[in-house]
Amino acid sequence: MASQPKNVGILAMEIYFPPTCLQQEVLEAHDGASKGKYTIGLGQDCMGFCTEVEDVISMSLTAVNSLLEKYSVDPKQIGRLEVGSETVIDKSKSIKTFLMQIFEKHGNTDIEGVDSTNACYGGTAALFNCVNWVESASWDGRYGLVVCTDSAVYAEGPARPTGGAAAVAMLVGPDAPIVFESKIRASHMSHVYDFYKPILDSEYPVVDGKLSQTCYLMALDACYKSLCNKYEKLEGKQFSMTDAAYFVFHSPYNKLVQKSFSRLLFNDFLRNASSIDESAKKILAPFESLTGDESYQSRDLEKTSQQLAKPLYDEKVQPTTLIPKQVGNMYTASLYAAFASLLHNKHNTLAGQRVIMFSYGSGLTATMFSLKFNEGQHPFSLSNIASVMNVAEKLESRHEFTPEKFIEILKLMEHRYGAKDFVTSKDCSLLAPGTYYLTEVDSKYRRFYAKKAHENGQVNGH
Ligand code: ACO
């Protein structure tokens, strides 16, 4: 019988994104958008995407296998495996079951958990499930493992530059360097049609871009208000932006993250929080009487609060933006890729600090929650997590494609989506050793993957 677990949270992380990408500046020119629209207007630098040999299953296989290997975790030590994804490959068979290939080889089939789906929120649901399991009476002393993975692709049009692709794997257990402050958590869930995928023979969503932006900000306000109230009841003092060292947001594109952070500042102003000094109060006073709806429409408020929030944004948010700006919206993986950016940039100074996370999935589901850092013990230390993820090298070693080539690949993927009886090019020349890739979908729609050999190693089929 396992003893009562303490400090449950994230012990280890790995991130995988495709080595293939497209510069936003180049895409902007190709699309005939005005100069600066994608780079300054959306705030994005580059976009990662899967070619025909990669998908959410191959990316997940790569991330899970790499995490187990690099942290020397025995696959038999995993007791729960949860996947968050909104990329539909099979309406019945979960991505989790594909990942079982890694564990079956080691004689471990006793692993609970399946996939969670609701737009970009599924990864957070999967993470909560694993944390709750470790904290529950049914925990058997083994680790939980969470995978957030998506390939975000949009039809031709204004949403296309907000795509991306990645898989993030996270090991969950007690005595973690990244601990859940489970009481400091607030959700907002509601029925709206801002982004959804009713067309089952297409990978592309139906999206009301403007509505999705407003829904995101409304959900953020609701979660922040509720989190502040809960904190105040619990701690007997007010919560404000100064109570967290960092804020990590689900990141469809960076401009929305900038707007979100300034929205928190406006919330602090309305709550008369100590984070807002007298000069900021004077500047924001003209906006105090706006109704909620008016405040979402006010360009003046947006501009003013963004300017006021800029120094705090640079300190508390900018270190979380690296991967989302470079890879794009990774849907369920987006929030955790932003978190990985923070670990990459600040792992030496995080111990003792609090970070507030905001997860948003259209439709809509949203949660704001709090994490606290400890130094951790090798291999589960903050510095080792940063070194395993090796973010800078992964970003630098990518290959840039032209928009023409990107569009050609998307056309092929449209044709292949839901199709059977094809073999891929099996061209894994751009993939790093150890990366899984799709080789074939047979006449019964069964998918087959191989792993690119390490030097002098063997290629393994799945
Ligand atoms: N230089 C600098 N900035 C520019 C330029 C330029 N040349 N041209 C436009 N801009 C600015 C605009 O002013 C705007 O900034 P603002 O929001 O501060 O006003 C920004 O660039 C985007 O321009 P828009 O005209 O608003 O863009 P458009 O409506 O064509 O598309 C959108 C943007 C709606 C985000 C689209 O990409 C989309 O639908 N994406 C998918 C939906 C999405 O990501 N929603 C977010 C939450 S839900 C989720 O995570 C999927």
TrEMBL record:
One GO biological-process annotation of the entry reads: acetyl-CoA metabolic process
Q: Which residues form the Hydroxymethylglutaryl-coenzyme A synthase C-terminal domain?
A: 178-452
Q: Which organism is it from?
A: Solanum tuberosum
Which named protein is this? Hydroxymethylglutaryl-CoA synthase
Residue limits of the Hydroxymethylglutaryl-coenzyme A synthase N-terminal domain? 5-177
Q: Which residues form a coiled coil?
A: none
Q: Hey, which pathway is this one from?
A: Metabolic intermediate biosynthesis; (R)-mevalonate biosynthesis; (R)-mevalonate from acetyl-CoA: step 2/3
> Which Enzyme Commission number(s) are on file for it?
2.3.3.10
**InterPro entries in the cross-refs:** HMG_CoA_synt_AS, HMG_CoA_synt_C_dom, HMG_CoA_synth_N, HMG_CoA_synthase_euk, Thiolase-like
One family from Pfam that matches here is HMG_CoA_synt_N
